[in-house]
Design brief:
Helices cover 80% and strands 0% of the residues. It is mainly α.
């Protein structure tokens, strides 16, 4: 919930909350940062792979309804090519890499010359540990990998069901092609670097829904209802985040208090 909340408030909805998630795991569950980071990368890679697959299917359906403007086509093509390239490099490095070959993150660190930065060099061992854990999961934990992909697919299907239900209760019985098209458009819109896709989300739905054979009024209503659902989730996530932060502060205060008491006891004893 913390990760979803931070992601929603950052310019790109799918990323942004990962460092906070890793920090929260360390503070609340005593999970080492490298293990927490590895679990988050694995989770993100699996989920985004499934999202991208549904995005491609929906995109094909979306373009069957109308021919978009050239600018939209260029942006979409850029997103698709970039996503395929990154996913290919990730899975290639994860499944085919060995201890002597650079992993996914070290590969980009080397290409971008980030290894010259002192701060990056300090965490080099931690990055290596993360890459080893990721490789181990994908290579050795086949059953858990299948379960993880299945759960991610179920999550996306539940989102699609939510879209269908909202449109249905607004008075239109949409088909799977229309729902997948709407999902592809929403995925693309949320990649635009605007926090929570403010404005662009609502405008895009009103513009595209008529091409899908659905009233633009339903498109606007749909976007507002989905926005409200997201905001409810974000409010809940903020409560969870606040709870963990307060819990962490209380624990720190208790440690400081115990340290002060022990010092006074030692002082008076001596």
């Amino acid at each position: 919930m913390i990760g979803l909340t931070i992601n929603y408030l950052t310019p790109v909805v799918f990323i942004g909350g990962e460092p906070v998630r890793a920090y929260s795991l360390k503070q609340e569950a005593k999970v080492p940062l490298d293990k927490g980071a590895a679990s988050i990368v694995i989770d993100g890679a699996i989920y985004l792979s499934v999202v991208f697959l549904f995005f491609l299917i929906g995109l094909a359906y979306l373009f069957s309804y109308f021919v978009p403007p050239k600018g939209f086509l260029f942006v979409t093509a850029g997103v698709v090519i970039f996503s395929i390239t990154v996913l290919y490099i990730f899975y290639y490095k994860t499944f085919n890499g060995d201890s002597e070959e650079k992993g996914f993150f070290n590969f980009f660190i080397s290409i971008l010359g980030l290894n010259k930065i002192k701060a990056i060099r300090k965490i080099e061992q931690g990055i290596n540990n993360v890459e080893q854990d990721i490789s181990y999961f994908f290579k050795k934990q086949k059953i858990k990998l299948i379960i993880a992909f299945s759960l991610s697919a179920a999550e996306v299907l539940l989102v699609l069901l939510t879209y269908w239900l909202v449109i249905y209760f607004l008075g239109y019985n949409s088909g799977i092609k229309q729902i997948l098209s709407v999902n592809a458009l929403i995925t693309l819109i949320f990649l635009v670097p605007i926090p929570a896709a403010l404005g662009s989300f609502e405008i895009s739905q009103a513009f595209v829904f008529p091409f899908l054979g659905i009233s633009p009024a339903i498109g606007i209503s749909f976007s507002l209802i989905i926005r409200i659902i997201n905001l409810i989730m974000i409010c809940f996530g903020m409560l969870v985040f606040t709870h963990f932060q307060l819990s962490t502060l209380i624990k720190k205060a208790e440690r400081i208090e115990a340290e002060i008491v022990n010092r006074y006891k030692k002082f008076f004893y001596e």
